Amino acid sequence: MAKKIGVTMEVGNDGVAVITISNPPVNSLASQIISGLKEKFQEANQRSDVKAIVLTGNGGRFSGGFDINVFQQVHKTGDISLMPEVSVDLVCNLMEDSRKPLVAAVEGLALGGGLELAMACHARVAAPKAQLGLPELTLGIIPGFGGTQRLPRLVGLEKGANMILLSKSISSEEGYKLGLIDALEAESFKQLVLSDTAKALVHVFFAQRATSKVPKVTDVGLKPRPMKKVAVIGGGLMGSGIATALLLSNIRVLLKEINSEYLLKGIKSVEANLKGLVSRGKLTQDKAGKAFSLLKGVLDYTEFKDVDMVIEAVIENIQLKQKIFKEIEEVCPPHCILASNTSTIDLNVIGEKTNSKDRIVGAHFFSPAHLMTLLEIVRTENTSAQVILDLMALGKAIKKVPVVVGNCIGFAVNRTFFPYSQAAHMLVNLGVDLFRVDSVITSFGLPLGPFQLGDLAGHGIGIAVKDIYAKAYGDRMFSSPLTELLLKSGRNGKINGRGYYIYEKGSKPKPDSSVLSVVEESRKLTNIMPGGKPISVTDKEIVEMILFPVVNEACRVLDEGVVIRASDLDVASVLGMSFPSYRGGLLFWADTVGPKYIYERLKRLSETYGGFFKPSRYLEERATKGMLLVKSLNFSFQFVMWQENTVFNHVYRQIY
Ligand SMILES: C[C@H](O)CC(=O)SCCNC(=O)CCNC(=O)[C@H](O)C(C)(C)COP(=O)(O)OP(=O)(O)OC[C@H]1O[C@@H](n2cnc3c(N)ncnc32)[C@H](O)[C@@H]1OP(=O)(O)O
């Protein structure tokens, strides 16, 4: 009988998709298995009825790794293109970056590429006595699907290197003790579902769904109006990214600039964004061409007469924005939504000179706007419910996650994270090495440390908004001269190839040791090192000194009702700041640390280093009353355990 080779996916009523590899006898990863996996993961990620994904292998074996026959074919033909692209497309983009909780259910064996697939999942459950290893060196190759990186991270460098260099496999029991396996199936499955990671990911999942419910907007019987043509003012980094996001969802876009040189630049940026998606296999050439054909560059407002929405994305200059809003109010039709992509400025100030306050709204995208999924919708007390609903619908249509927030300086996300870079500056001025700060924060789980993030955004923006923040939140600002000094020394970050790091095409950012003289200059000016000597801090203290002030500001955001619910801030921190989803978002994480502990640490820090760390009223109240910051979601888990073929078919389900 012919072998049944392929990848299947079954989605249960519980919303769990079970993806199964079938390639007897060891479920080796042949080309059709890899393409099948890509197809199924793509489908599972896209389907709204899929809430979580389980990856497993048929016949009691997870996978014996990449199909060794392919190596033989390559050796015979000399054709290396027979090797499929897996590491980025499948392992990183579709699996690791999947926003749906993804669990590997391992039985029998997970070797080579098999174990690498399991390690790309968010958690691993294994049956007792399963064999786990990376035996690639026995074949004269190295683990090629990211195992060299992921295994040492999970089991520690020494053990990881030992397993790879000696091709030594281990049992699932040992894997469990080392942290490679999160739970041993059957015995410990409940533990896994109740693990912090599972709780955090499930929290984010449901928190994200909750963002689409906005009282007095989504529950009053309004229907979103169609958005066929949108104008974007400003073709810079943000404007071109926003235009790209709209075009990708078949929305006609007018891109307006002030002169033909800037306009051409903006159009070229959109083209480059689309080409980037094509080269990464995320968009077909055809679709890119179609999207680009929907773009029209303009230098005046003539064609604004029939637009449904304008999104202003010019520099953060209050007078300029006020002028633009006055102009668009006059030229656009009365139904047209007047949105600003400002990241900081009060929308009431932007719309001050207009008579259209009900249709003024913030559409705050995150850079790069065609890739980042968060859309912060900022409403003022005058913004109409219809306008908010329309923007929410547009956000969803362009595959963003809209989170509706209130109007204040920095809104929910930038305001919450404004102490992030300030705390980092304080630490550096206190004598801590800046590259260490970045590395501690990335080990915590954020993709970029505060200094690399500053480099990426460009340091000019920090200076542009500094005064606005100082005016609003001056009582709790740490004023560091470091950014000014950095700019003075010709370092604007990635934009001009130099910041704290050196940026060269095709290579990773390299720490620039010559920036340390700039840091020294800043330390002299601030003169805050106790006794003129650098402070000594542990990695844990670095995390606390950087992230606890962020939690503190989040408490103020909650207290002032800037977000509808605390979990909105978790979603926003995950999607807007890439706060690790497996920690459940900023406030969920804060609750796992404990509001009381955070409060007491901040209190002590403020006694030593001043008002920047002063605990907020809200945090103090929660801490002293022994309350959590996020009102826990009222979900419980339901388990459906092993089925006869021992592929587990589990589910956790929200039961409100
Ligand atoms: C990108 C990645 O990092 C690269 C990789 O993954 S490279 C591959 C890494 N994996 C390995 O090296 C595992 C190699 N396989 C083994 O060690 C053993 O076969 C095993 C432990 C999986 C099973 O052992 P055992 O039960 O004794 O069965 P065994 O007779 O060896 O193998 C059964 C059949 O599966 C085949 N097979 C096993 N692993 C395979 C693989 N990875 N690819 C293709 N075929 C494989 C064998 O050739 C054999 O085929 P046959 O029945 O036609 O002779």
Automatic annotation (TrEMBL):
A Pfam family assignment: ECH_1
Cell location: Peroxisome
Keyword annotations of the record: Fatty acid metabolism, Isomerase, Lipid metabolism, Lyase, Multifunctional enzyme, NAD, Oxidoreductase, Peroxisome
Ranges of residues in domain 3-hydroxyacyl-CoA dehydrogenase NAD binding: 229-407
Domain 3-hydroxyacyl-CoA dehydrogenase C-terminal residues, every copy: 410-503
Pathway: Lipid metabolism; fatty acid beta-oxidation
Record's catalysed reaction(s): a (3S)-3-hydroxyacyl-CoA = a (2E)-enoyl-CoA + H2O; a (3Z)-enoyl-CoA = a 4-saturated (2E)-enoyl-CoA; a 4-saturated-(3S)-3-hydroxyacyl-CoA = a (3E)-enoyl-CoA + H2O; (3S)-3-hydroxybutanoyl-CoA = (3R)-3-hydroxybutanoyl-CoA
Main location: other
Entry's family note: Belongs to the enoyl-CoA hydratase/isomerase family.
Annotated protein name in UniProt: 3-hydroxyacyl-CoA dehydrogenase
Organism of derivation: Brassica napus (Rape)
